[in-house]
Design goal:
2 domains
């Protein structure tokens, strides 16, 4: 049985990646592409915005004027929309029995004070917030199989948590010293909407959101440990490289780190643990759904490197990976 699938927010970079993934998924039928009712992209073919889709998917981007009616025609909904928009739309689709994969931050952290503080709105759907499964795919396989609402993690949190979680859970890090995450993202991470900051002549390698980026509390909440997180904007299109520094627990060794990482991901086809001393590189993961993790220890400290494509493993392909786990399809279907 193929599942009727719609994508809301299909005009953006992540939306375009979802279009391609759903189109080639043998168990999904691409039933509709939607943008906001007032979008200037409404009624244009998606391929007119994203040339790589020309002759592959030329469907129009329909204005979402009645989500209740659209919901009746869908089994699966991907929301590649702004946080506040997903917050409003998800309950409408869920009420009609759709399975929803939300790529915004609207349902990622089940804490009452999180959203006014970090997203600027008070959450109006606490019941759905409590039921949402956080879609860090490699660590949520059982929960995903029963989920109706999946909150797909952010791009920086995906790269950071996949590297840190196994060694934290194994007790290999000194909990008195907060892990320090320095991560750089390509400009597509800022979205497709034009801005001076992201224009060609203005982009420069720089830190931003220092001590204030909303992905810091997301990472800390799901790792259950405080972290120092500093994002950087890189002068390239796509990909995230996170370099993570941590202090090893007394007696912990590089060999133990390698053993823990390899054991954690031995059955994870989309995470590649590199040999000790080898660093993760963007070039190896761009345009793929993989996460590459490198590790090296010296003088009682550990450095982890984690590389992903921000639009794929950090967004669209992880959403499809979650869908595959939800419905019992092969985990890499449409991704590899």
């Amino acid at each position: 049985m193929t599942r009727n699938t719609i994508i809301v927010g299909a005009s953006g970079y992540t939306g375009a990646e979802l279009v391609a993934l759903v189109h080639r998924h043998p168990q999904l039928h691409l039933a509709g592409l939607y943008v906001s009712a007032g979008s200037e992209d409404a009624n244009r073919p998606v391929s007119a915005l994203h040339g790589q889709l020309r002759g592959v998917v030329d469907m129009p981007l329909m204005p979402l004027t009645s989500p209740q009616d659209v919901a009746k025609q869908a089994d699966v909904v991907f929301l590649a929309t702004a946080h506040a928009v997903s917050h409003e739309l998800a309950p409408i689709f869920l009420a009609q029995g759709c399975v929803v994969f939300d790529l915004s931050g609207a349902y990622r952290v089940n804490q009452a004070d999180f959203y006014p503080t970090h997203y600027g709105f008070s959450h109006q759907s606490p019941a759905w917030l409590a039921q949402a499964v956080y879609g860090l795919a490699e660590w949520q396989q059982e929960a995903l199989s029963a989920a109706q609402l999946v909150a797909v993690p952010g791009c920086y949190p995906t790269a950071s948590q996949l590297a840190l979680k196994p060694v934290l859970d194994a007790g290999l890090l000194d909990k008195q010293m907060w892990p320090v995450i320095n991560a750089t993202s390509g400009v597509t991470g800022a979205g497709r909407k034009a801005s001076l900051t992201n224009s060609f002549c203005e982009v420069s390698l720089n830190a931003y959101g220092v001590f204030s980026h909303r992905h810091q509390p997301e990472i800390a909440a799901h790792l259950d440990t405080p972290v120092i997180f500093t994002p950087h904007l890189g002068s390239y299109k796509r990909g995230i490289l996170a370099t993570i520094t941590a202090k090893l627990a007394p007696g912990a060794s590089e060999a133990e780190v390698g053993q823990v990482l390899n054991q954690a991901y031995q059955d994870a086809p989309l995470v590649r643990v590199l040999p000790a001393g080898e660093v993760a590189k963007l070039q190896a993961v761009q345009h793929t759904g993989f996460c590459d993790i490198g590790y090296q220890a010296a003088h009682g400290h550990l450095i982890l490197t984690s590389a992903i494509d921000n639009l794929l493993k950090g967004a669209a392909s992880q959403a499809v990976q979650c869908l595959n786990l939800k419905f019992g399809f092969a985990e890499t279907t449409a991704i590899v």
